[in-house]
UniProtKB/TrEMBL annotation:
Coiled coil: none annotated. The lineage of its organism: Bacteria, Pseudomonadati, Pseudomonadota, Alphaproteobacteria, Hyphomicrobiales. GO terms for molecular function: DNA binding. GO terms for biological process: DNA restriction-modification system. Belongs to the type-I restriction system S methylase family. Keywords: DNA-binding, Restriction system. The keyword Zinc does not apply. It comes from the Bacteria. It comes from Rhodoplanes elegans. This is Type I restriction modification DNA specificity domain-containing protein. Pfam families: Methylase_S. Residues 36-213, 261-389 form the Type I restriction modification DNA specificity domain. The keyword DNA-binding applies.
Length: 441
């Protein structure tokens, strides 16, 4: 097996001689935990080539922009557990040749080791990574799918493997000493297939919902930004809406370029935003109500501070994202939430906020922030209530389908999270797991 692994280029100190045991199938050093029958504890670097990454110099803009995907922390946090085919930043041959970064092959497994520890992605095409990652190029002895699931299952263990006060980091002496508990290759593939069947369906639901959301946004833009139904009537051309919808739209634009009878104002005319509420992590108690931050749902709590359905956007840190919340929720202090919809449709307010250029209202500080009073000044078009309601009715079946997909994905994710540690530790054997998955997938 070792003969299949080419020399790594991580450099630095040798492997740690200590032992820090993970929860299921990973350990720093060789643990005294017995492997299941037919499995064996194996030094990971014996079956997968260990690689790190690097960041081409930002002082040379010519190193950036090109055809080489470059995996950064943002890509990992946004795609945890997935195979990625694109990244938020790209480098090029010049950037690679003038740095310690290397282009790694398809199916390389990447683990974030610093900044945000424990995020896992798999390369869907050749890519390079930043130095925030350790990467494994798998040999024929280990399935990259199986390794991915081991790393996903051991996320809590990475904080035991890491050290540091301000920022937790998994250092290379520990990484070089990683041991993985491996079943035979065919069993690895079966385990990965069982878990992958669930993940594939979850991913299909996610992509379907992205398509449905794009359809809703396209219709909103057509009606309320481009005013297509009004322009079509004014120019006496098709395609025309059904009569019950067509009659809701005027047949001309006024002198300001908006549909006659519609109101042009600002965001405060549409709704009122309010800063969210403090909720330290130490005070959170598990419950049914989502905690919504500037970057989306960040947990659940037993209390809610805002009634649903609601709309939330970022106030501090992450700005520009807008979230629709179906039920009651707790908006965090890093977010702004809609306190008063002023008799406007909740969905209309949600999509209208998504049209706002939040960067115009950012304070441009190192950590971006927004003053809600400034955001209230954003220009806004407010159509009659009946047009907003018609939009909601027309799209209701689309949103219901999204809700059904989300509910199914939650059920499948719960099953996957139950099976994952049991399968990769050998506690549950594949024949029993296949029966369970076969009943729901």
């Amino acid at each position: 097996m070792a003969g299949e692994i080419k020399m790594t280029r991580t450099g630095g100190r040798p492997a740690s001689s200590g032992v820090i045991q993970g929860k299921y199938a990973l350990s720093v050093g060789l643990p005294d935990k017995l492997a299941p029958d037919g499995w064996s504890w194996t030094l990971l670097s014996d079956v997968a080539r260990l690689e790190t990454g690097h960041t081409p110099s930002r002082k040379h803009p010519e190193y950036w922009g090109g055809d080489v995907p470059w995996v950064g922390i943002k890509d990992a946090t946004e795609n945890h557990g997935r195979t990625i085919n694109s990244t938020s930043q790209y480098t090029n041959t010049l950037g690679i040749s003038n740095s310690s970064a290397r282009i790694l092959p398809t199916n390389t497994v990447c683990l974030s080791r610093t900044a945000s520890v424990g995020y896992v992605v798999v390369m869907g095409r050749p890519m390079a990574t930043s130095q925030d990652f350790v990467n494994w190029v798998c040999s024929k002895s280990i399935s990259h799918h199986f390794l991915k699931y081991v790393l996903l299952a051991e996320r809590e263990s990475f904080f035991r493997f890491a050290s540091g006060t301000t920022h937790q980091t998994i250092y290379f002496p520990e990484v070089k000493a990683f041991h993985v508990c491996l079943p035979p290759k065919d069993e690895q593939e079966i385990i990965a297939h069982i878990l992958g069947t669930l993940d594939d369906k979850i991913e299909l639901n996610r992509r379907t919902n992205e398509t449905l959301e794009a359809m809703a946004q396209a219709l909103f833009k057509s009606w309320f930004v481009d005013f297509d139904p009004v322009r079509a009537k004014a120019e006496n051309r098709g395609p025309k809406l059904p009569a019950n919808l067509d009659e809701l739209f005027p047949d001309n634009l006024d002198g300001d370029g908006i549909p006659c009878g519609w109101h042009s104002g600002n965001l405060l005319d549409l709704c009122e935003l309010k800063r969210g509420y403090d909720l330290p992590t130490s005070q959170r108690t598990p419950g049914a109500f989502p905690i919504v931050s500037s970057s989306g749902v960040s947990g659940f709590h037993h209390e809610a501070m805002a009634p649903g359905p609601g709309v939330v956007t970022g106030r501090y840190g992450t700005i520009g994202e807008v979230f629709f919340v179906k039920g009651d929720y707790w908006p965090l202090n890093t977010a702004l939430y809609v306190k008063n919809f002023k008799e406007n449709s909740v969905r209309y307010v949600y999509y209208a906020l998504k049209q706002v250029d939040f960067q115009k209202f950012s304070d441009k500080a190192a950590v971006p922030g927004i003053n809600r009073n400034h955001l209230h000044e954003a220009a806004m078009i407010i159509p009659p209530r009946e047009v907003q309601v018609a939009f909601e009715r027309l799209m209701s079946s689309t949103w219901n389908r999204q809700d059904a997909n989300d509910a199914e994905s939650s059920t499948l994710a719960a099953l996957r999270d139950t099976l994952l540690p049991k399968l990769i530790s050998g506690e549950l054997r594949v024949k029993d797991a296949e029966k369970i998955v076969g009943r729901v997938a």
